[in-house]
Amino acid sequence: MGLFIAAPFFMVILYLLASLVGGLVPSGVSGKVDAEEATAEHTVYLVSNALHADVAIPVNDMTRQQFSFLRQSGFPIDNPNLKYLVIGWGSHDFYTSTAEYSDIKLSTIWKAATGDRAVMHVAPAGDISASDSAMRIPLGPNAFGHLLEYVLDSFKTRNDKPVPLPEATFGYGDVFYEAEGHFNIFHPCNVWVSKALSMAGVSTGIWTPTTYSLFIHHKLYH
Question: Residue 78 is part of which domain span?
Fold first, then answer.
């Protein structure tokens, strides 16, 4: 009985240890970008809390055009004070109902761990460069283009248009959309972020399910 009760605790410990190792070991995936590209014309950020990481994409004429579909959901894409699109991928049930840690429920944790459909979340942000939760990643034009391609391809489309979830919002101009892929404990939000970075030619760990595994790799190798 004691082993049965302790089993979930040891499983969590093993999961966290595996994520640490996964963050320390480079994936060896260089993405599609030319390794010799050195001109860092764009700066993106990793923005995280204890559980979840997003990619913050700078707003300029090009990104306003590529994300113009956000206007249909009331997103303030044309606001002159908008500096970044903070974009994440995650579990539908957990992501859309957990604005604060106090909103976390065992039912949504279980659904996310065992498998859930995915959603994209886009939130507006001003200057985040001084934020303690933001890590700077400079990218050249080709790398930035590949990152945008991966992010845009993550939006599920219907009739060639991203599919919004109008009832899902945290109330500060953010929007949710249906996403490609399937969320589970082995392929959570932070693995999506890692894949986005690798497509931009940024070194990542072989498996980064936690924000710590994402950041420890970046601090060690960049």
Answer: 37-203
